[in-house]
Amino acid sequence: MDLDAVPQEGNRTHAGLRKAVYARDAQGRMVVAPSAGWEVEEIVTTQAVDAMAAEADAARLRVQQGTASTLEYWMSARRMDVALLAQSTGLWQWRVRRHLQPACFAKLSPALLERYAQALGLNPEQLQRLP
Amino acid sequence: MTTASTAFQHRHAAHCESGVISSLLSHHGAPMTEAMAFGLSSGLSFAYLPFVKLSGLPLVAYRMPPRAIIKGLAKPMQARFRFETFRSPEAGRARLDALLAEGRVVGLQTSVFWLPYFPQDMRFHFNAHNLLVYGRNGDDYLVSDPVFEDPQRCASADMARARFAKGVLAPKGLLYYPQEIGRQQPDAEAIRRAIRKTCRVMLAPVPIAGVRGMRMLANKIERLPADAKGSAFIGHVVRMQEEIGTGGAGFRFIYAAFLQEAATITGRHDFAAFADRLTTIGDGWRGFALKAARMIRGREPLVPATIAQLLREQADAEEGFFRDLKKAVA
User: Fold this and answer.
1) pLDDT single digits (tens) A28-75
2) Is residue B66 in a domain?
3) Mutate to test the interface with A, among B144, B166, B246, B278 (most CBs of A within 10 A)
C-alpha cells in the first residue's frame, strides 16, 4: 500500500479515532501514517454491531411479551452470550439459561441478582427492568 | 494524588502488543520501533482455530497469540520481563498503584469492552488488548493506548473491570514490566533467527497454522451457504483481519517495515526486496477484504467460492514468499 492509498474515507464506527497504518512512501520506505478509516472496516463492523443490536431488540420484545426475563435483554445489550455471562458470574451455563425464563428470574435471591448486576455493570434495580 | 512517570513518550502504533512493548523498551533506554518489536519476536503468523469460538464464530488470528511478542523479545534483547496475575481485582489494583508510585510504566492486558474511552461500536468482548499505564491523576489512570493517537484517561473502577473481565483469553489482571534489559539494539544474528522462526511457523506442517491454515479456512468458506449465515462468517473473517489488531494486510505491512529495518542493520540488501514483495502480498489481503465487503454489502452477489479462491491465491503467494525467505536466511 502506497502512502496516497491510505484510506481516509472515514469510518463512523470509529467515532473520529484515527488508526496507525504502515504504507510505502515515495522513496519506497514503509512509514507509519494515520488513517481516518476504510469503508471495508466500516461495513464489517456495522454488520457485527447490527447483528448484536437486532439480538437486543428481539430480547426486548420477548421481555415485553413475557417470554423472557430482563436478564436476557441485559445480556444481549452487553453484547454477551450465555457462555460469557456464565463465566463472568461463575455460574453453570444451565443455571444462567434457566434464569432467562421470567418465572425463574422472579424468584432469584438478592445475592444472585447482585452477582448478575455486577457482571453486567448494573445495579440490581436496573437489572430487573428494561431501560 | 498525582504521579506520572517522568518523560514518558506516547506513541501511536498499528498493533497494541507491539506498540506497547516497543514503547516500554524505548522508555527504558532501548530504542525500538514497533516494526522491529513485531519482527524480532516473530509476531507474524496465521492460525485458524475452529474450536475457539468468539460469539459463536471461530478465531482467525493473523499473528502469534497474546504475550508472544513480549516473550519473544526477552532473548534477543537479553531482557527479563515480570508478569503478574491476580486472584482478586483488589489485589490487582493495589499492585498496580504500588508500581506506579515507584514511578514505573506498567503494561496491562485488558478487555476492550469495558474501556470507556473506546468508541461504542468498537467495544467487543475481546480480552487480549494491551495498553500502558504511566501514571495516576486522582482516581484516573493515565493511559498510553497505542491504538489511540493521544494519551487517554480511565477511571480506576473501569480499569479494574477491564483487567478482570472473564471469557476467552481472560487477562486475570495481568500486568508486566521489564526488570532488566541487557541490550540496546538487536544484533544481526538475532534478526536472522527471528526471520527463520517466522518462516517455520508460516510453513508449519500442521493443518491449522500458516499457509495450510489459510487453505483450511478457504475450504470452510467454500462450503458456506450463500445466505445471511455465510455472510456473517465471511464478515467475521474480514473483521478479524481488518478491525481487531490491524489484521492480515496490516501485519504484512508491519513485517515489511521490519524487513527494511533488518536490511539496514544486517547489511542484507535482499531483505529490502523481500519487503517489497510482502507489501504486494499485503495489498492482496486488502483486495480480499474489499471483495468480501462488497459481497456483504450486496453490491455484488455473495459467492463464497470466489472468496475462497482469493484466499487460496494469498496462501500460494505467501508460501512462495516464505520458502524463498527461508532459503535466504538458511
Assistant:
1) 999 999 998 888 888 888 888 999 999 999 999 999 999 999 999 999
2) no
3) B166
* B232 secondary structure, DSSP code: H
Q: Please, what CATH class does the domain formed by A48-127 belong to?
A: mainly alpha
R_g of chain B computed on alpha carbons: 20
Domain count within chain B: 2
pLDDT tens, position by position, B196-248: 999 999 999 999 999 999 999 999 999 999 998 899 999 888 887 766 555 56
> Residue A34 is placed in which grid cell?
494515520
Q: Note whether B137 and B215 are same-domain residues.
A: no
A84/B125 Cβ within 8 A: yes
How close is the nearest chain A Cα to the Cα of B102, in Å?
31
- Listed residues B133, B149, B181: the one ending a domain: B181
Q: What span, in angstroms and rounded, lies between the C-alpha atoms of A43 and A39? A: 6
Which chain B residue is nearest to residue A89, measuring alpha carbons? B166
CA–CA distance, B269 with A59 (Å, rounded to integer)? 59
Q: Would the CB atoms of A48 and B242 count as touching at under 8 Å?
A: no
Would residue B53 count as lying in a domain? Answer: no
* DSSP type of residue A2: B
